[in-house]
Amino acid sequence: MAKTHTPKASELLFPMPRTVEDREGFFRFHDGITIAIDSAFKALKETAPTLLHVLMGGEDILVKQQAGFSSEGYSLTINNRQVVIKASKEEGAFRGISTLRNLYYTSDHRLPCCYIEDSPSFAWRGFMIDCSRHYFSPTFLKKLIDVASLYHLNRFHWHLSDDQGWRIPLEGWPELEKVASKRTLLQYTDGRTYGRLYTKEEILDIQAYAHARHMVVVPEIETPGHVSSLLAAYPQFGCSGGPYEVQDRWGIFDEVLCAGNDQVLEFLEDAITQMASLFSDPYIHIGGDECPHTAWESCPKCQKRMQEEGLTKAKELQSWMTSKICAMVSKKGKHPIGWDEVLEGTESLGIPQDLIVMSWRGVAGGIEASERKHEVIMCPNTDGCYFDYQHTDDDEEMGNLGVSSITQVSQFDPLAGLKNETARGRVLGSQGNLWSEKITTGRQAEYMLFPRLMVLAERLWNPQEQEKTLNRIPLLYKVCDALSINCYRGPLA
Ligand code: ACM
Ligand code: ZN
Q1: Beta-carbon neighbour count of residue 2 at 10 Å?
Q2: CB under 6 Å to ligand 1: residues?
Q3: CA of 185 to the centre of ligand 1 (A)
Q4: pLDDT exceeds cutoff 70 at 85
Q5: Residue 327: which residues within 8 A CB-CB, separation 6 or more?
Q6: Which of 7, 199, 329, 466 is deepest in the core (most CB within 10 A)?
């Protein structure tokens, strides 16, 4: 009888670890497998048995603390009797558990013997979900966080406010729930509304779930544009005073936060203070993208502010506001992040040096920011990082505004175009962004995210030659099947 080919570990791993040594034999993962975890890794004792569906009380899988690994680094040894994970930090041990779990799915529970040593290329490996245009349920967000962590992603950028809905619970601002969180669905004639806030309990729960998977949560509050929902709730924050509506159309809207109104700054200070205590991780994203300045040009309050501050162009008001908002974030001990428009109108004024710039309109903003000594996150819509874009240029394919093919994602290099080692050193990493204008269900979101997000994850963990990545895409389908994920399986180009 012909011997069936037992795949080697190096044929089953995605992302590919830094080094893999294939060995003979395999470890069969059956019911009743036991795990022992070093007492130094307290949180892992809670999560690992559930994630792997194994029991405490024996040493079939052994997780040990050992000096000498980077914080996310680990080694994984699989022989036919035992699996051993070694790491210095709990985070590294978790990455090792994720690799093991991934291999469990791709090997049909028959794990090939191997020795792996691993650590990441980039520190920032993320994904953004727009929860304004579509409100994604906490259960669904947890599903995404879990599968993202399986691919060693470590940043969940949570887009929580926009023209079409406000999702952040803030005490003392009741109109956010009553007005800003809901929009009238104009496709219907019966006045029905859509949307809700996340509760504090839901946010804390999602955060705890993410932290158990070593995923940092980055909340975003959009300023000073993309604020129709906020203006509908508090019309005094706009230049004209309204009335405004929570938008049920897509686009860029001229009415933005009035830069001449001190009440706006007071609101932002309170919002950021409350967010800083609700979200425990070190970052707050302050938006900054697509903010028209037309309303400011004809607003007496904004004009007065410009005179007082010695500003000659309306776009400088945006950088003035960015500086104010950054200061609020920094005062709370957090790092501000902004979309690349935050660089505009700053030629004479500058912007706070601690502002991290997220480059989305191509890579030019990221390159300029790094030259100006800012830390940078690259997520160019021109290079495959926009997952609301179609997978292929086919009218019948789902998606919006452009194309991000799997092939394109598999070529993406966050360091492309950066001139020297110093500039490259300021690039923290990258993320895939899912805007949800055209998404109405979690199943559609899965189709847009997978497998592209997994491919991006490999670029950020350990980039492979394009062909090596594309040949291994069926491994991703297999994991999606195991986790009930509705992934795209069409052409790669
Ligand atoms: C963006 O895509 N407007 C950041
Ligand atoms: Zn104004």
Answers
A1: 4
A2: 289-290, 339, 360
A3: 23
A4: yes
A5: 352
A6: 329
Is residue 429 classed as helix, strand or coil in its secondary structure?
A: strand
Of 338, 207, 299, 92, residue with least CA distance to 330: 338
The bound ligand whose nearest atom lies closest to the alpha carbon of 296 is 2
Q: Say which ligand is closest to the CA of 264.
A: 2
pLDDT confidence band for 4 (50 / 70 / 90) = low
The residues near 422 (Cβ < 8 Å, ≥ 6 apart) are none
Which of 222, 360, 383, 434 for mutating ligand 1's site (highest number of atoms within 8 Å of CB)? 360
What sign results for the dihedral spanned by CA atoms 160, 163, 166, 171?
A: positive
Q: Packing angle between helix 90-106 and helix 42-52, nearest 10 degrees?
A: 10
Is residue 238 within 8 A of residue 258, CB to CB? The reply is yes
| Residue having the nearest C-alpha atom to atom 3 of ligand 1 | 289
Query: Which residue shows structure tokens 């300045």?
Result: 293
For residue 147, give the nearest of 343, 14, 7, 286 by alpha carbon.
14
Residue 6 pLDDT grade (very low, low, confident, very high; cuts 50, 70, 90): confident
In DSSP terms, 115 is beta-bridged to: 21, 77
Instruction: Give the pair of three-digit tokens for residue 341.
Output: 């428009």
Percent of the chain with pLDDT over 70: 99
Ligand 1 atom with least separation from CA of 339: 4
Does the predicted model carry a pTM greater than 0.85? yes
pLDDT band at 320 (very low <50, low <70, confident <90, very high): very high
CATH architecture designation of domain 9-118: 2-Layer Sandwich (3.30)
- Contact in structure between 377 and 358 (CB atoms under 8 Å): yes
pLDDT surpasses 90 at 275: yes
Ligand nearest to the CA of 360: 1
Structure tokens at 71: 């914080």
Question: CB–CB of 123/429 below 8 Å?
Answer: yes
Check: CATH 3.90.960.10 for 124-482? no
H/E segment holding residue 28: strand 19-28
Angle formed by the axes of helices 138-150 and 200-212, nearest 10°: 10
Distance 46 CA to ligand 1 centre (A): 38
> E-strand spans in 41-136?
55-56, 61-65, 74-78, 83-87, 110-118, 124-130
Domain boundaries, the chain: 9-118, 124-482
Burial of 128 (0-12, 13-18, 19+ CB in 10 A): buried
Spell out the long-range contacts of 79-84 with Cβ–Cβ below 8 A and sequence spacing 24 or more.
79/23, 79/25, 79/27, 79/113, 80/25, 80/26, 80/27, 80/113, 81/27, 82/27, 83/27, 83/111
Element (H, E) at 326: helix 314-331
- Residue carrying the six token digits 């969180």: 181
> Ligand 2 centre from 297 Cα, in Å?
8
